[in-house]
Amino acid sequence: xxxxxxxxxxxxxxxxxxxxxxxxxxxxxxxxxxxxxxxxxxxxxxxxxxxxxxxxxxxxxxxxxxxxxxxxxxxxxxxxxxxxxxxxxxxxxxxxxxxxxxxxxxxxxxxxxxxxxxxxxxxxxxxxxxxxxxxxxxxxxxxxxxxxxxxxxxxxxxxxxxxxxxxxxxxxxxxxxxxxxxxxxxxxxxxxxxxxxxxxxxxxxxxxxxxxxxxxxxxxxxxxxxxxxxxxxxxxxxxxxxxxxxxxxxxxxxxxxxxxxxxxxxxxxxxxxxxxxxxxxxxxxxxxxxxxxxxxxxxxxxxxxxxxxxxxxxxxxxxxxxxxxxxxxxxxxxxxxxxxxxxxxxxxxxxxxxxxxxxxxxxxxxxxxxxxxxxxxxxxxxxxxxxxxxxxxxxxxxxxxxxxxxxxxxxxxxxxxx
Length: 418
Hints:
- The protein is of the alpha+beta class.
- It has helices at residues 14-25, 65-70, 73-76, 106-110, 117-131, 135-138, 146-153, 157-172, 181-193, 204-210, 303-306, 333-344, 375-378, 396-412, and strands spanning 5-10, 30-33, 45-48, 51-54, 60-61, 78-80, 85-89, 92-96, 196-199, 219-220, 225-229, 232-235, 240-248, 268-277, 288-290, 297-302, 316-322, 352-363, 379-381, 384-386.
- Strands 1, 2, 10, 11, 12, 13, 19 and 20 form an 8-stranded mixed β-sheet that branches. It has a 7-stranded mixed β-sheet with strand order 8-7-15-16-17-14-18, sandwiched between helices.
- Strand 11 and strand 12 (232-235) form a beta hairpin.
């Protein structure tokens, strides 16, 4: 059967773009089919009134091995958050840093009231231990919840509640620390060996960089694939595109029929509100964590303090991520969040709400995670391959790796060899 392309990739998120980049480099005729109006999936940046609004607060961990392989950090002009965090506990604010990188913070970190001295020493021990632990070792370890892991490691209940829960709730997108302990160790290692950063012009620049080598004719936007027939992708508009190989690179919940059975997962959502300030706010270069369990706010980031291009000159952009919420709380959410901000930042009365991003599928459940997979898990049917962070673990790193593994499997296929 004569086909239109060597490979069709359904979904132009990070996984699909990575696969496309590899296949294009191998001189394959490809087509990326994307249901939205742009590439990047969940990693996109909107422009509004001179502000850069990432679709939900997110960062790039610079130690991600796949990111180091596929991205040019210098061209992205990465801007880095200071390590550690600024912690709001009731009406007090405390700073916890990395003494290895900021020796002057050693005493302040050790004697902060967020946990006891033993907790701080265990934190240093954990950092040192994971620094010498390979990713292969981490992902082969016994899995339990992160909460169980932290308890078994010896951290006090107070330190778990005042540091680990607010910090990792914002990363895991769940408040109970039920995420796999493997994921915790992986991310803690990444934070310890690198930094959290954003490109100078928004997280969407990561997606744009991955797409740089693709021609316009190789990307089809605003076209949703509904189903497949043999080696043909059929869109909701009835258009048909055939290829020797098809890579499904959508989110787990958007996989076209009949392959949804390959994506059983419970997604986690994310809600981020953006506020603008007419004047520069007091300088804060760390992520701020809110430990007050009765409040909505989980973390706050003053984006222009890290990357000035996120806001017009002389103004500030404040990102506020909130905890898991029930649907009824979404009513008057802006006013409730603003009221909480006012208790910490009196100037917040003058902040203007810019946008609210509710991302229904932000991460997979991550209760069981891996860092590698096998050919039979990637090739789900004759001519069909699958990738996406949900096949490994919920991270930009895993999205890239899954795209790479899928592309490599396609290139090994007999029906693609010339």
